[in-house]
Amino acid sequence: MKIIIDGKRIELDDKKTILEAARENGISIPSLCDHQRLSPFAGCRLCIVQIKGRKGYPPSCSTYAEDGMEVKTKTPSLQRLRREILELILSEHPNACLICTEKENCDEFKSTIRKVGETTGCVLCPNNGHCELQDVVDALKVDKVRFPSVYRELEIKKEDPFFDRNYNLCILCGRCVRVCHEVRGASTLSFTYRGSQAVVGTVLDRPHLESGCQFCGACVDVCPTGALSERALKYESLADDTAATICPLCSMGCKLEVESKDGRILSSRPAPEGGVNRGQVCVKGRFMIKNLVHSPRRILKPMIRKDKELEEVTWDEALDFVACRLKKYKGKEVALVASSQVTCEDNFILQKFSRAALRTENIASPVSVSPLSTYRELVQEQGLKAGLNFRIEDISKANVLFLSGADLPVSHPIVWLEVLKAVKAGAKLVVASPQELSLNRYASVWLRNKPGTEVALFSYLSKAFLESEEDGGHSRVEGFGSFKKSLDKLDFSQVAQTTGVPKEKFMQTAELLLEGETSAFLFGAGLTQNPWGAQNLAALHNLALLKSGRLYPLGLENNLRGAFEMNNGHSDKGLSIDQVFRAVHSGSIKALYLAGPLPDLQKAKIEFLVIQGSFMNDNMEKADAVLPAATFAETDGTFVNVEGRIQKFQKVIGLSGEAQPDWWITSRLAKKMGHEGFGYKNQAAVMKEISRDIPGFSKISNTKLDNDDEVFVHEEVKGKEKFIPFKPVLAPEETGQKYPLLMSVDYNLDYYRNLALTQESKGLRMIRDSRWIKISPEDAKRLKLNDGDTVVVDSVSGKTQGRVRISGALPKGVVGANFLWNEDSDFSLVPLSFSSSFKNHILNIIPVKIKRGK
Amino acid sequence: MAEKVLTQHFGLKNVYQIDEYIKQGGYEAVKKALKLKPEEILEEMKKANLRGRGGAGFPAGVKWGFVPKVDKPKYLCVNADEGEPGTFKDRYIMSHNPHMLLEGIIITSYCVGIHSAYIYIRGEYEAVALRLEEAISEAYDKGYLGKNILNSGFDLDVSVHRGAGAYICGEETALLESLEGKRGNPRLKPPFPASVGLFQCPTVINNVETLSNIPQIILNGADWFTGKGLPKDGGTRIFGVSGMVEKPGIYELPIGTNLKDIINKHAGGMKQGKKLKAVIPGGMSAPVLKADEIDIPMDFDSLVNAESMLGSAAIIVIDTGTSMLDVLKAVTKFYSHESCGLCTPCRIGTSWINKIVKRMAEGKGSKKDIDDIVRLASNILGKTLCPLGDAAAMPILSIAKKFRKELESRL
Ligand SMILES: Cc1cc2nc3c(=O)[nH]c(=O)nc-3n(C[C@H](O)[C@H](O)[C@H](O)COP(=O)(O)O)c2cc1C
Ligand code: SF4
Ligand code: SF4
Ligand code: SF4
Ligand code: SF4
Ligand code: SF4
Ligand code: FES
User: ipTM more than 0.90?
Assistant: First the structure.
């Protein structure tokens, strides 16, 4: 297709608007409401053009190029019209500074502190200096407004966390409304009222907190004016440096753009292009980075305990002290806890250090309790053909999506956006979850199973699928016979009683699965983080195999996959993280090197504790040495995200205090302990060794990582297709007389290393208060409990105390709680969820009883 | 007097009830249509060239022909929003003769392959909505709606949806949004509703009066229809006359009837002692005609030639005792209130025009104000997202041009 814009011949391959075509060819057309990621809106009317043979002034942002079109973008009449339209916009906007004749000389005021609440002109506006309205005014050279200026006197909304909304500055471009609806699926914002009263807002003008907002900041990022502005930036001057990095706060590994000034981070935003996230992030990547990097809890100096007090010392002294003490322990007496939130390089060195210097296989980390491990184990045991790598965009191509064990908008925000994209394109979503999730409104079927009945649920689904299907030709596949036989034993008349889900829902789901061509089965930690996790997975695997669908294991922590690859092959030899926790309490472990998460150690019986971390927490009271580790923002390194994508990143600011990268600390320590082979000059040197030693990184070089966004962990997907034998109905832990309620524990990812993010940010606390024991309205009524009441929760393994919140999302008989590695001392699930009878499992379904506490 | 089509039963008692309606020959058209092939009906409709009575005058048959043959549900939306000031014809049709509309709905749906139809009715028409619902339930009982209508194998469900009082929801795409449960914002076109309409599916949208013509076209044929009115603009229209006439009300007359005759003969002429000053011939959105411009046939093309429009055929008669500034004030207040606010020229433009006119009415205007109004309205005309902008600009421009002297005299 050929078109001509302003005399320039342009060749186009695919469907594009005139505005896009012009932009790509260096022709600028003033525009305000258009945004490249959003659907055309055509509201501002600045982008009007003239097209030969057509009358009027069509907007170029919503008019698609057609072969042979001749377009003019800058005729005098167009420019005049644009100026008049812009004048209209400015008549309702604080325009004093925009048309001020002195504005060229006003530059030095651009960093004026904006203490005044009302923005009466650019100099008092948080958007000053990067405002698209200013740009358009400059481009169209508007220097007068022939209308008296109207200040709309709308109340400035400040009740929500993270950003302010000043609709007096709003030009009603609708970008925020569209991004929230089209991309985020939250639909928090809408146009309200009409005519000159029209304004953007929430339903019934409630705060965002009560309007389903995810606080992803996408609306703030697309707003062309200062109407939506990040509160923390209000009093900041403009940045002097912008650098890219990878968000360390979940397994998505979003590409971030971090702005800083004088070595201090001002803000973090999604990088506009590239990365897994393509311009989107979640609340953590958007609003937490600065808080955590510059947290007052940062440990900035090495410390060792002298005369019962921790004292700041030099690195040499600290390392000498630790080296000397650690040498006394080896093998089963010592353990190291690693984090899945540090880089691959850090993890590699931690592993090497443990084996060489600590002479132990007790290298524990959350990796062993993750869905990746359960899945990999199953694959290996059964000799299946299944890999861990995938591409996030494959998810949006599926026609049916089956989700269990993850609350995606919170746990895997970017995966959720892909699912949403699929659903908007007509895909069907089936959600299996005892609790009502916010994403359920996009689901075609919600299977509200009783907690812990997933095996039965998936088996009945397989049975329903086989009954609806004509002939799937499954008998060719190994194991089908016995799988079919075990399904035959299932009786549909019992299904509702066993799973809590009526038969129709099974048939409905089977039908959707049959109709959809490609399917994706997504599962998270909720499915695997319990003793029968492998059974759950086997049942899900079989269901997916019937449909030739793909399983997508969704790990939680940022570099879980990287850490998983780094301890490849060694994972099972030593103690698991829950066993380490018990062992430090029973006294069988005498020395602990804590470079990862572990709950409160106040009662641990331990001789020597080293903490290598970035933030102070209660465990420090017990520590003999504290080694300050740099955060991701101050280091170079690589993270592997949920897809298996290896992402290299560079530091965005210099080191804080005397903190050093983890690999640096541990390799120095190893040297001090007299070990060879730890003389790394930099992170790249570690990576070189990784690519030599770690199979998944065997074809990876530093140069490749530097130049390619699309590097994946090397994996050989070999094996066969096979139905896995399993017992179809595994009785879940029955709730008995003694423990009549089921506690369902979700994993909470709101932490970075040893910092609970909710501790650091009041905003996050407001939106994700996880320190509650959630209870259904029915149970609350029966137990005569009100919001905020203190209760004692009792289980076979132990008891804990906490406060109650009544939640309509829970069914009767189910209690909800969140597990956080960095628990604070007022509320801990550890006594309940670290059950002594299992290795590698932190219980997530626990029969309990609840009574009022004091 | 000419034969009545749409209002033929209006004098009869109880014709809104199905038994009485059937006694008068009702539902014969449906019976006949269901025996025809859908293509035959479409052919006949194209020949009849029935032009849309909602305002734009687009031929119904052609519109139906745009519906693609895809494997998706298709919908019919009946535009009963009747928001155009001065217009009240659809209300008469629906309350006097709801079954005629239902017949039109059934035939249209059968022709296009539609199995669900929605009547989007103006929120204020509560009694009318109830009457429609009653008529629908009667039709279900008699087997004219529901599954396997008259054993033809054709299924159709009809339901009534009440609007919430926004003029913009009469605009077809805003109507669709509203029907989907969203805020009634107009959509961008293309795609047109015929291909991407309600719930993203092909959708036909027609006005109440348009659809009510269909049974008689089926019974009597396209030639009979074009024989009434004009060859390219056939049939009758229900002219709703309001203002300073002796007998305001609805008059069903052949298309092309002279405006002068409608006012002077049918509506009984000007009220005693009143003198004609101006006429708005097609609802408030239509540019005004001066007293010396009313010798004109009332059809789509003639009014376009006179730089006005037939629109909803609502005739508002203005006498010399009425100030055109007051008329202008009413017009600008209405449109600035009803602008949905999505696009700049209409949202802020109508709001400024309204403010300026208000000031003029308070006696604080200046000559420049009229220039400003003309400039603002010209910047709206043809430059907005949906046709409401034009609907606002056209009457304003015509008043400012044709009655400039009078307006200036009020400064
Ligand atoms: C602002 C606006 C308001 C409208 N209101 C109505 C209305 O109340 N009733 C109506 O039938 N058509 C109305 N229309 C016209 C419809 O958009 C549409 O053209 C009509 O329903 C099509 O039906 P027809 O082809 O049978 O006339 C309106 C159009 C605009 C732009
Ligand atoms: S939004 Fe832009 S134009 Fe408006 S006051 Fe702020 S900086 Fe100035
Ligand atoms: S922060 Fe995100 S979810 Fe909340 S309103 Fe903005 S775009 Fe929507
Ligand atoms: S708040 Fe910002 S993004 Fe939203 S409509 Fe107003 S100017 Fe546009
Ligand atoms: S989705 Fe995950 S990686 Fe992306 S910004 Fe949020 S926490 Fe960071
Ligand atoms: S012209 Fe624009 S502002 Fe006016 S009603 Fe249509 S879309 Fe809304
Ligand atoms: S950018 Fe096209 S109308 Fe706003």
Answer: yes
